Amino acid sequence: MTSQRSRDRLVRQLRDMGIESETVLASIRSTPRHIFIDEALASRAYDNTALPIGQNQTISQPYIVARMTEALLEAGDLDKVLEIGTGCGYQTAILAQLARRVYSIERIEVLLAGARERFHTLNYRNIKAKYGDGTRGWPEHAPFQGILVSAAPAKIPDALMEQLAVGGRIIIPIGHSGGQKLLSVVRTRTGFVEKNLDPVSFVPMLKGTG
Ligand code: SAH
Asked: Is the Cβ–Cβ distance between 58 and 95 less than 8 Å?
């Protein structure tokens, strides 16, 4: 159930669904998603579905993780990436294989603790994760070439726009549950250029810490 065969099957499904980036597919193939979820759900770890991770939150669907990561990589090589909504840490682990350094913020302390433990167990050394409100970004480490947001605000927080490098991009779901859209926003020398990707369904981005 948690074998390489089930991971290979998932990768084939993602390819069929339109994911083209070989680097993204390779990182999905090599990342043990079953380590990021409850043991009771391990048999479904390589299904292309979102699953509960406790605290009313979910691990994102593999297709969405792949789609967002692929969209983020359009900016070219990634040096520093900021992620909002660490959750169980699966998306963080995927990013850690594709960027030099990943900064991740989570507002629910027990989820952050679980994710940190997994990063340690799996030996990801280029992830720095903290407990806090991601709507403020992480100014000490800005600017970021990429920002990936896994919870949906009503509008893009100003701090995240400010902390994006010129030429960098932010991938973010926007809107209320039932009607969210995934946006890719590139920062140019003179402003921001927005592209609409897919309709999506994320948990809401909440202010403050949980
Ligand atoms: N990529 C994660 C997604 C988890 S769900 C995974 O696959 O596990 C989204 C996460 O965003 C939740 O853990 C939620 O607590 C977190 N979140 C919501 N609002 C936030 C905020 N303002 N700052 C930081 N994290 C936030």
From this structure: no
